[in-house]
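Suppose a colleague, Dr. K., hands you the sequence of a protein chain of 567 amino acids and asks what its three-dimensional shape might be. Before reaching for any lab equipment, you can write down a predicted structure in token form. Begin with the sequence itself:
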Amino acid sequence: MDEMQNMTTITPQPWWRKNLLLWCCLLLCALNMPMLITDVIPDRDVMVRYAPMAEAFAKGNYLYAFHPRTGFLHTFTAGIIAKLSGLDGFTACKLSSMLFMMLAIFPLYSMTKRIFSRKIAEYSVLFYLICSQLHRLTTWGLRDSHKLFLLMLASYSLIRIYQDREKWGGYIWLAVSIGGGIITRGDMILYMGILFFWGMVMELKISRIPYRSFASSVIAACLTIPSIITNEKLAGMAVPEVRFSIIFEKIMHRLPGLTDTCIIALIVLVLCLIAAIITRKIIDLKYGYIFFLFIGAMYVLGLILLIVLPFYQLEYTDPDFIVSILKGYFPALLILAVIGIIFKIWKKEWTRADSILVILSFSHTVLIIGQVLIFDKYLFVSHRYLLPAAILEIPFAVYGLQCLWDFLTTYQNRYLPPKLLRTVAILGVSALCIGMLIDLYAPILKASKPKQRKYEQESLKMAEFIRNDYKGPKFAAPKIDPNHYVSNRRPVLYFIRFNEEKQSLFFDYGRITSLTWNAGGRWTIFPEEADYVIEKQTEYYKPAPNMEKITEMNVGKATYNIWRVKK
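The predicted structure, expressed as tokens, is then:
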């Protein structure tokens, strides 16, 4: 009897906690499925590169399935989905994106549980399901959702290394995220390299030789080598991404081979080790962190000087540059995250792990902008490039909501009774969730408008007409361009319009090009390659003798002439 009384009573978990992450994965699929089904006109990047590459992979035509201009990972996963399911490349790309959005749930939960609590981790995952702007990445079928998952996995790995430096788990997951990041987007290589460096710095606190970091570098290399070898075989450059080939070619006046890449990787590894040893010694000093704050300030100042120095001429300045940065942080999420940060500092619960998370988010923005400034000389950043890192704001946002909830539901006031405050809190959270869901389905709501539906239907009708009229081969063998991916799909379309301002004919980069995918082909900027010319009706266009006008069709407010090129 005494033994029975001393036994700990196990409280059964509520139904929603059992297999919570699995239920969240299924719910994420359900929330995204309407957009995946209704979106039939792909984004330009998907239409030109990702979807044709996935289909080429599924058909075993690997020459047109991979390219150094595009990350290896998205093509590989979308290609496998297309091959196993028989789906078209566009649908396969959307499913590939959704897969990585689901995978991000697991490191998000694990990391938040380590830094905050299990309760905050559970609500963070649930809140992630309604983060509308993040889920837009899925419906487009872009590789940004892969980046989102890898950023989350890398952040979790770094936190795990910080808390458990002697265990291998953090180093292994960091290696996976680094390898995956390198073969996803070129702008992630520098960011992931810096995370590897800091992982090594952390390990040096407990070991004179960072053998765990060295082992993780081998794992990361094994994940990137297939991409590097493929790019060398197909395009003659042994790099994970084309921009590094451009840098190498400017210095060495030739394209890099596999030996060059291996030597450079070993040099970078040795330099990381030397820098990590020096950094570790400085951190161990009394004023080490002040030193690194100074270095960070100098880095930001250096970027500012690059903009204002007279000899540094920017080729392009985006007037909406600041707006794009704010959009990249997902403003609704950012406001809640700032509230959470303020509460954490006010309640004296701030930890170094919190600082790491904030630095990871901020440094991602700085590095993306810095790379564009230095390499492209553009004061420009697309909010889509920054948006994946917004997932790092979710734990702070949920913590902020929790603090606001606690404040409102426990606050005593004769004029504002607790029941009223509780009602206000519930209504506020409900309004937030409804607003997020409305924003999530905004593209569907926009597409349902008569004007948009009419444009989409007319565009699809023109695409179907071209597809049915074309009697030539469905695939070609265009020359491989190392700097630009060229699909092997046919027919080849050339779009042209008259520019009123410049009073001359130009290639039409407008919305009309979106019909190319549904026409079964690709578009080109070289008229001599075209099977069809789509002309926005103008009296200034003079067709070549080998062209015949087959019809004219309306798409939106414009009328287009369709010319068939006789081969």
